[in-house]
Structures are given as C-alpha cells and as structure tokens.
Amino acid sequence: MKDVLLTRYSLLPFLYTLFHRAHLQGDTVARPLFFEFPWDVATWELDRQFLWGRSLLVTPVLEPGVDSVTGYVPQGTWYDFYTGSSVNSSGEMLKMSAPLEHLNLHIREGSILPTQKPGTTTEATRGNPLRLIVALSSHATAWGDLFWDDGESLDTFEKGNYSYVVFNVTQNIFTSTVLHASTEATKVTVGTLSIFGVQKPPSKVLLNGQEKPFSYLDNQVLNVSDLGMSLSQGFSLQWL
C-alpha cells in the first residue's frame, strides 16, 4: 500500500497540471477510455479501467485475492510506467501481473509526464527534484506541460502567480520552454530525464550544448540524471 501511495505522490505534478486544465478549459481529469478512443467500439463498455488525462492508463485490481488483472490496451504503443518497456498493441486484452505492491500504469506514446521524487507529505514532495518521463511516439515525438504554483494560494492563475512550462521532443531534441514564470519555480529543479522508446544507443548526450553522462538500457530507455536545471529556466537536451 505504501509503494502505491508513493507512486501517487510521485505523479502529483502531472495530476496538478490536469486539474489546472480542468479549471481553465473544462478538461476531464479521470476519464473513461472511450473519451480518448471513441472510434474503438471495444472501449465503449469498459468500466474497470480509466485514464488520467489522455496519457496515463490505469488498470486497477478490483477483486480480492488475485495477483493478475486483465485489461484492454488501445491500439498504439504504450510504455510501462515503472520500467519504460513498450507494449505495441493492436487493440487487445492483455493479462498483467498485479502483485499487492504493484499498480499497472502505462504511458501513452507521444506524452511527457512531469513526476517528482515522492516524500511522506505533499509539502515534502514539492521540494524534491522533478523527473520528466518522455514516451516517444512512432515518429519519435512527444509533448507535455506543467503548471506550477505555491500549492496553497487561491486564484494563482488569475493573479499570475504561477509558472507554466511546455515540454517538446522532435528530431532527438528535448526542449523545456517557460511560457510564464513565478518565483515558486526557482525553488525546484529538473533532476532526471527518462526517455522511453529511443531506438538506437546514443553516442553522446548534450545538455545546452555540453556533454552529459547518460545510461541506455536494453529496453530502449535513455536516462540522464543530475541535470540540476531550475524549472524557471528553459533548456534543451539532444542525443546523437
């Protein structure tokens, strides 16, 4: 239970941004699969799974005493939230291992999720470095965003007391662009960039033009740690 709760804490930046969009545009935060895949008739009657936004597929266990769950994975490439391993689905039901300490989460291709090292409280979590998870599409592109304020004050968007950052990947270049900034963003850093679906091992990684150590795993995950970039500053990272 603690592991699953810490996973939820790590996703607070993503969830908070979804609530910002709900406030600003009326988007749904938790949504049924047919909201995103209305042309897929298999999603119309699904009521045992849901999405956070358009990007995160949640397949919970709803029965006692079982250690696996069967869930529908819509057509496309989805990535395991924890490992970055890809699932290329034609739109099919898949049996997933589901021990007590594990909640099945999959990230939709083309998405970028802002996450954070979890603490024991939301206040403790807010001070930790961010980890940005990039789930590349079949065209090696991705997009995401982050809304950030002090987490307590009312009407921060209306008063302009917030930061809004857009993340984008195209042609092996990740960019972080600050569209609106506040002092709160100077208190948090981007610590790690995890890129899922990098087809070939890079020979080098450049952070703002400077070489940076990296790791590349057999399941096509590129990790770049210790970035130390302030959220209030835009930056770019390229892999060659």
Automatic annotation (TrEMBL):
One family name in Pfam for this protein: Glyco_hydro_31_3rd
InterPro entries per the UniProt record, alphabetical: Glyco_hydro_31_C, Glyco_hydro_b
Keyword match Repeat: no
One MF term in the entry's GO annotations: alpha-1,4-glucosidase activity
Stored Gene3D superfamilies: Golgi alpha-mannosidase II
The entry's keywords: Glycoprotein, Glycosidase, Hydrolase
Domain Glycosyl hydrolase family 31 C-terminal: 26-113
Record's keyword annotation contains Glycoprotein: yes
Family under the similarity heading: Belongs to the glycosyl hydrolase 31 family.
Protein's name according to its UniProt entry: LYAG glucosidase
Source organism of this protein record: Hypocryptadius cinnamomeus
